Every structure is written in C-alpha cells, then in structure tokens.
Queue: 2 jobs
Job 1
Amino acid sequence: MGKIVQVKESGGIVGAVEYTLAHPRDSKQRGIRHLASNVFIFKDSSLTEILLTKRNLDMNRGGKINVCIGGHNDWLDYSNKGEKSIETALRELKEEVFYNNTLPPELDNLQFISAFPKNLRANDLEIVSLYTGIYSGPFYKNPFEVSDIFFETIPNVKTDIIKNPEKYVKSAELYLDHLCFFMQTTTKI
C-alpha cells in the first residue's frame, strides 16, 4: 500500500501518510484522518436503481457488497500533492468497473453531493466525498477486485442491509443514508 492524503479534522490537507498508519490493523488503535471518494452509479434517470459491487474474496472485506465505488485519495509523489476527490472517484470507477477500458462519456460529469467525516471505527477515520453518475452499462469488472456487478433498487438495498448487515461493507448504510438525504433535499442529480 502506498501513501494517501492525510487531512486535519476540518478537512484541510496535511500531506502524505502511509496507508498502514492511516488504517492500523488493530481495530482499537486510532487511525489518521484521510480522504476517500465514492461514486453511486444510477441505472437511469429514474434514480431508483444503484450499482452494487461484490468484492473479490481475495480482497480486504472479501465477499462483501459495496453500495458505491470508491477508495482513498492517493498522494502523488511526482507532484508532491494529493489527488483531488473527483480524480479519485474517476480513477476508482476505471479501476473497479471499467477494467482495461476507458470511462464512457456519460460519466465525465459526476455530480458532487456531499462530503462528511466517517467515524465508524477508530482505525478508519476518513473525510468522504460522494458523487453520483448515471450509466446502465456495459461494465468491465476488475477480476482482482470485483466478483460481481449488479443493479438493485434503493429500498431493496436498505431493507437487505437491515436484515443482513453481514453481507455489506460497514459503511454501506451510512453512505446510502447520505445519498437518500441528498435525494430528499434536492431535485438535481
């Protein structure tokens, strides 16, 4: 694992931090606040179905379902600066669901919806930027990261997270809550 972007509690960039320091293996050890970016992909303009991915069994949280696609903002040593959140969102889309392909033009203009501190675990302190996009496929899953890709309605996902939380990454409900709040308070996506 390389370096990611460390930030202050307020979100201001501090500099580079090693991934292993930001995310200590010991879940009781406090991590270092850092940036992450995630994208919800809607199947169409009805905004009723979102893209879900199931993590490859060999990955961290293997076999768990993600409600969005994302990852950490990388520190770019060659320019001595951190990746912008939108750059991370686009890179993660390409890495996970457009493997060995270019991103389709429909995803060139992702919409920023929210940034918030994620404090679900002491060793996973992030400031997360969320984006949305609309695209129905095709997708090209990265076999090293993703074992399955499928669309599901938001109500079905919310119900399933409550009934079967062990199937999902720990942040799934939190991210979905932020998406639903945004959708209730705005009409533009």
Job 2
Amino acid sequence: MMNVSTILMAVFIATAYAAWPVVGSYSRASGGWIGTVVVIATGITVAICSAKQLISFPNTKAILLLLIAGAINGVAVYLYSCKVADVTVPTAAFVVTVAVFMSVIAPLLSWLLNGAIPTFYQTLGYGLAMSAIYFLNK
C-alpha cells in the first residue's frame, strides 16, 4: 500500500508526463523537435537532481541494460512525439491510451523480469484498464 506522499508524488509525475505532450501539440512544433527538446531538458534536469548519485558507477551489465532500454525508449519517444504533433490524432485520448497501456504492460514486464506476481485485485484492475482503452477509442 502506498502512503499519501507517494500518491501525491504520483499525481505530480502523472501531471508532468501528461502535460508535455499536450504542450508539445499546442506548440505546433514537429514531432522531432518536440521529442528532442523534451528529452534534452529531461536529461539535464535528471542529471542535476541526481548529481550525488552519479558519483558512483553501476556495474557494466546495468549500464548495458540501461543503454538498451534508453535506445528503445528513444524510438518510443520519437514515435510518441510524432503522434502528438499529428493534428489528426486526438492528443488527450492518445496520451491516456498510452498511459493505460503502460499500466497493463508494466506489471507484465515486472512479472517476467522480477517475478512479481500480480494480486487478484491488480489483475482485475488491469482488465478494467483494457476496457478503458476500448472506450477511449470509440
């Protein structure tokens, strides 16, 4: 169970994650510019916030795994930014669809990589999330 401060932090994170594609769409910049500027600003901010943690290096395996994940994420951010910039795609519905898919895919990946087995209620929630995707796209 999460405490109130963790839930409030989740609200802030969700707001930031939801805001940048909406602002990107509003800016009318191309998908490439939206993704590149947001990723650069994100990288600089993360580096500043985590400067003390960056002093010690993780092992080579961790670095390689993170580089692979980052490359895959880079392709995803580019594709996401292109859809956000596309005036024929409803930005809000697209952002929510991606977020809901993330809420279903994350526990599956965690189960595969970390052995974290979802509870009955979590599984029920994932099923409801999938129904939300159906309704969002009607």
